[in-house]
Amino acid sequence: MNLEHEKLKNKFGKSIIFQENLSKFSWFNLGGPAKIFFKPESTEQLKEFLKLINNSHKIVCLGAGSNTLIRDGGFNGVIIKLSPKFSFIKQLEENVLEVGAGTLDKTLSRYAIENSISNFEFLSCIPGSLGGTIRMNSGCYGNEISNILISINALDFRGNLIEIKRDDIQFNYRGSSLPEDLIFLSAKLQAKKGEKNSIKEKVEKYSKEKKESQPSQIKTCGSTFKNPKDKKAWELIKDSNCDLASFGKASISKKHCNFFVNEGGASSEDIERLIKFVREKVFEKHKVKLDLELKIIGEKL
Ligand SMILES: Cc1cc2nc3c(=O)[nH]c(=O)nc-3n(C[C@H](O)[C@H](O)[C@H](O)COP(=O)(O)OP(=O)(O)OC[C@H]3O[C@@H](n4cnc5c(N)ncnc54)[C@H](O)[C@@H]3O)c2cc1C
User: How many C-beta atoms lie closer than 10 Å to residue 85's C-beta?
Assistant: First the structure.
């Protein structure tokens, strides 16, 4: 252990791990180790850590890992993974919830059903955390998180606490103007009193539609590419005759060809080769450049 690591270990104890295997933190179940893995127990501890690190390492905050491919060589920097202390839901007012960024979207949606709160039905179909969902402006069935966002509490990478109001953010399809050097801690979300049974029915309808159109119980990070304007990525892939392609144990879901799959034993490199191949084929046939929805982090082996 070098001096810096020793200092960090003495200060943060079990919240810090060196060379932590990251594959268990991605839905692809792929990826090498993180040089420094930090699991803060509180905002204060995270703030202290960031001030100490003082931007001397690359930093990535991982949520539920349902949209992130981690490369085989791991991450040569700091991975921050919010501990369960950042998973909470508080009803501040009748129409406002404060939700920790580590809270799973599905947990939030379940809470909303139990408490007859509308607006959160679509989150039942997204397997991410609130933090990742804000970063991605995730959504489905005509809704997205920016529609119900009021404000965000965050720390920047230097450890400064900030509050950002919805009106100061430009959201777009699967992205926003939010700076990269932010760790979201919690958000205030717009709730609406609803009728329990109709909320439940809506959630069941969405879940059924999802089950019919998308694969489940597989190692995937959902949609690989964003839909280009007025087009569907999956249709372009199918029409370019590359939906049966595979590299090693990386293949494309038979049910939804924008979902790439680790069949078990794939490497991240296999997934990236598949991505490159599909992009080339779609470009050859349609002259459309597909943009990644998936986030890729880390180093190649
Ligand atoms: C089966 C399946 C179905 C899916 N269906 C949908 C869908 O219908 N609609 C949709 O939009 N997406 C869908 N996704 C993609 C994914 O679930 C969403 O993008 C989700 O919101 C990502 O959240 P996460 O916590 O897993 O993010 P991660 O993959 O952990 O991270 C994604 C990005 O967010 C950043 N991030 C995470 N937490 C924080 C934080 N606290 N502060 C700052 N940045 C943070 C990461 O650095 C990274 O850049 C699906 C994925 C799967 C596997």
Answer: 14
**Does the active-site annotation cover 293?**
yes
pLDDT tens per residue across span 71-83 = 999 999 999 999 9
Which pLDDT belongs to residue 47? 98
Distance of alpha carbon 115 from alpha carbon 160, whole angstroms:
34
What is the token pair recorded at 47? 């703030």
Domains along the sequence of the chain with CATH:
3-84 (3.30.43.10), 87-203 (3.30.465.10), 216-297 (3.90.78.10)
Q: What are the two backbone dihedrals, phi and then psi, of residue 275, each rounded to the nearest 5 degrees? A: -60, -45
pLDDT of residue 3: 84
Residues 6+ apart with CB under 8 A from 178: 134, 135, 152, 164, 169
Give the number of the atom of ligand 1 that is nearest the alpha carbon of residue 68: 29
* Number of C-beta neighbours around residue 78 at 10 A: 22
**Catalytic residue, candidates 20, 144, 272, 293:** 293
Is 253 in contact with 215 (CB distance < 8 Å)? Answer: yes
Please say if 174 is a catalytic residue.
yes
Q: Is 62 strand, coil or helix?
A: strand
Active site residue 20: no
Residues of the chain with pLDDT under 70: none
Distances (CA, A) of 257 to 127, 191, 269: 19, 35, 19
State pTM to two decimals.
Answer: 0.98
Taking a C-beta distance cutoff of 8 angstroms, is the pair 145, 135 a contact? no
- C-beta separation of 88 from 196 below 8 A: no
Given 174, 186, 267, 268, which residue is catalytic? Answer: 174
How many angstroms separate the CA atoms of 45 and 155, rounded?
Answer: 12
Q: Parallel, antiparallel, or unpaired for β 96-100 and 89-93?
A: antiparallel
Task: Give the integer Cα–Cα distance in Å for 141 and 120.
Answer: 12
